[in-house]
Design goal:
AhpD-like, 9 helices
Length: 188
């Protein structure tokens, strides 16, 4: 049960956005810019950063929904969902580019404490082809998702456990994005 009054049956951050529209708008706009705005990182790559940080923060709603969104951006096949699971299990052994491995390691350090990102981490990412803008975006996405995760978990939101629910979230959000949404509409 949530720590504050939220609409029945509206999970995770969605319930918070419905019940607090004044903060929903800027939070949705921030997510839209970070995860769907112009970037040399694909939408799938940016969603993987959100998934990785949310998984490390043990925020079930966020890592499940953003993992599903990433999988949908990758093509929505079972293999894409398996790839997301492999990244959750171990970034270093997952079948992803060296650049994404380095960027996800940086995101993981930001998740703990931004000061843990070292020149060596940045140099590894640069050697793998990461640009200044990509480094910026990864650190900002990681920091923002720490906030989003703590918002969702700190208020004790309802977080469904059914993986099929999150596939619906992934399909819908990959198509519609994070702004101009009616978050009270059930996911199907």
């Amino acid at each position: 049960m949530a720590h504050i009054a939220l609409p029945d049956g509206v999970p995770g951050i969605r319930g918070l956005l419905v019940s607090h529209p004044a903060t929903a708008k800027p939070m949705g706009e921030l997510a839209e810019v970070l995860l769907r705005g112009p970037s040399t990182l694909t939408m799938a790559e940016r969603e993987l950063v959100a998934t990785h940080v949310s998984f490390r923060n043990d925020c079930h709603y966020c890592h499940s929904s953003h993992g599903a969104i990433a999988a949908e951006h990758l093509g929505g096949r079972d293999a894409d969902y398996t790839l997301v699971d492999e990244i959750r299990a171990d970034v270093e052994t997952a079948p992803i580019s060296e650049k994404m491995k380095a960027l996800l390691v940086i995101a993981g350090h930001v998740q703990v404490d931004g000061k843990r990102v070292t020149a060596e981490h940045v140099e590894r990412a640069r050697r793998a082809g990461a640009t200044d803008d990509e480094l910026h975006d990864v650190v900002l996405i990681a920091a923002a998702f720490c906030m989003f995760n703590r918002y969702v978990d700190g208020l004790g939101t309802w977080q469904p456990r059914d993986p099929e629910f999150y596939r619906g979230v992934g399909k819908r959000t990959s198509e519609l994005g994070y702004t101009n949404r009616d978050y009270s509409t059930p996911i199907r």
